[in-house]
Every structure is written in C-alpha cells, then in structure tokens.
Design goal:
The chain has about 260 residues and is α/β, with parallel strands linked by helices. About 50% of the residues lie in helices and about 15% in strands. The protein is globular and about 50 Å long.
Length: about 260
C-alpha cells in the first residue's frame, strides 16, 4: 500500500508544530498548502521552503475561512492526499473567569474546523483509495485537566473522533491518526501549559512531528510520541482516578 504523500495541507502552519510539519514534509519532496491566519509568516515560510508551496490565509474560527479551505481540499485538479489538522488554541484559567467568546472559539477551531476539514478531504481520498489525515490532539486528552477545561475537552474529542474515524475508513486505503504530544517548547507551552512535568516527558517539536508523520504513514490510530508519556498513560489508566487528577493538575502547573 502506498504510504508516501504527494501534496499535504497543513493548518496552523505559521508557527509551532505546523512550521515543523511544513519543513519536514518539504524536505521529503511533498508539495504543500499552508494554512494560517498570519499571511506575513506564511509568505516568509513559503519563501524559505521554495517551490511547490501554496499559501492559503484563513481564520478557521470563521465559517467563511473554513469554507475556503474546504474548497481547496475538494479541488480535483490539485488533489491533497495528506491533511494535517494542526491548528489549535489553548489558554489556562478558571472556566468561569475566562471570556465565554474565547472558549467558544476554542471549540470552533479545535473541534468544528477539524471535523469540517476531515469531512471535506475524505470523499476524494476514499475514492482514490489513498490518503492520510493526521489530527494533532494532546496528551491532555487522556486525563482531566482543570484550569484548561475547554481545551482538554476539545482534545478529548479530537482523540476519540480520530480513533473512531480510523476504524471507519480502515479498509478504504485512508489512514487516520491522532497525534498526542506532551510538553514541548512551543507557543502553547508559553501560554502556560506543561510547566511542571519532569523534563523526561518533554520532547522537541522536531521529534514529535517526525513521529506523527511516521505514525500516519504506518496507519496507527493513536500516536503518543514520547515513550515515557506512553508508559505513564498506560500505567495511569490503571491507577485510581485521584492519581489521574494529580497528573492533570501538573500538566498546567496548578493544584
């Protein structure tokens, strides 16, 4: 079965994991469609990567922005055979004290946009009997994360949705994988996440992205790129719920 990809569409491509996805895919000779809000960053990255790079500025919390990306995914003249749903947002704080509009936007970006783009990409992929969808979730999807209540809930959706979809399309030639990164030095970490977990659980963005791309090529339903976190997740699932609460508290340095 073919597991290389000719053209990838990467959301949230202007920084963080998205930029590393773009760089690693470009180095493999994969043509790119880069999606993010910040046009200037997309243009700079595209200039560095060279040929076979399209930029598609879009705000994925805006239905019109999502529609533009959906249309690009459906374009039969320039087919996309790998979708990397990387765009996401997270903030920390007590749910009742955070602005409700921001929490609604988290759901719009982390859940609704991701689901819509999967729905747009799948028909052509299943018809071609080839394609990949890599949905970037989080290790926080495996345990309660107070003070990141909406974020954790959206990532729990992403993991469950991806695993369900993986089973649904497993005989069509389309690979669907959820990538569950742990702490990594990115802009999301700077927003207050992951700052009290031991360093053994941290990974570089480059390593996380490389393992995610290998996982979708291998058709793994879920990829926890850190072996230490994978072990802790399996072990933690057998522990009392109170133990899992302690781990969740440490994910964002509270409790």
């Amino acid at each position: 079965m073919k597991t290389s990809y000719n053209r990838a569409l990467v959301t949230g491509a202007s920084s963080g994991f998205g930029e590393f996805f773009a760089r690693q895919l470009s180095a493999r000779g994969t043509a790119l469609v880069l999606v993010a809000r910040r046009t200037d960053r997309l243009e700079k990255l595209a200039a560095e990567l060279g040929t076979d790079v399209e930029i598609l500025p879009a705000d994925l919390t805006d239905p019109e922005g999502v529609a533009g990306v959906e249309n690009r995914l459906r374009d039969p003249a320039r087919p996309v055979d790998l979708l990397v749903n990387n765009a996401g947002v997270g903030t920390t704080g007590g749910f009742a004290s955070l602005p409700l509009d921001g929490e609604i936007n988290k759901v719009a970006l982390n859940v609704t946009a991701l689901m819509r783009l999967c729905h747009a990409a799948l028909p052509r992929m299943t018809e071609a009997r080839h394609g990949g969808i890599l949905n970037v979730s989080s290790i926080s999807s495996t345990t309660p994360v107070p003070w990141a209540t909406t974020y954790g809930a959206t990532k729990a959706f992403v993991t469950a949705f991806s695993e369900n979809l993986h089973r649904e399309v497993r005989r069509t030639g389309v690979h669907v994988t959820a990538l569950l990164p742990g702490p990594s030095p990115t802009e999301l970490t700077d927003a207050g996440f992951d700052n009290r977990l031991p360093r053994v659980f941290w990974q570089s963005p480059e390593a996380i992205v490389a393992r995610g791309l290998a996982a979708v090529a291998a058709n793994k339903p879920v990829c926890i790129p850190s072996r230490a976190l994978a072990f802790a997740t399996v072990t933690g699932a057998r522990m009392p719920r109170s133990f899992q609460y302690l781990i969740g508290d440490r994910l964002i340095g509270r409790g």
